[in-house]
Design brief:
The protein is mainly alpha-helical. It has four helices and no strands.
Amino acid sequence: MTTVLLANAAATLFMAGLTWFVQVVHYPLFPLVGDGFTEYHRRHSNRTTFVVLPPMLVELVTSFWLLLDPPGDASGLAVAGAALAGATWALTALGAAPAHGRIGREGLGPDLQNRLLRISWLRTIAWTAHAGVVIAMLSVAID
């Protein structure tokens, strides 16, 4: 269980930090790219997959694994963690990925950027909440 919890913590904390960077720095700068935005966005999307897919998979698998073997009396925290991991996947699959697909096809207009930012804020909140849950689980495991 300790290895699973540590893997979950590492993946979740990585994604929480990354999503804050993307939300506050990266996405707001999209409109400043200019004429080369279509190529920039294509490369951004391809490279982002390599950075986020492995930790997202680790986070998801270990979150559900912790449901089977939560640390101490942290079964409620394990349920919350699994729900939040599921939420980030749903928001990504049903919101962020389609928005990026549309941006790739149609270009970045103000409506699409605002949609992406709104979806991204929801993911940022979910990953931040999951980070708090993971820290609480680590606290239970340490005690």
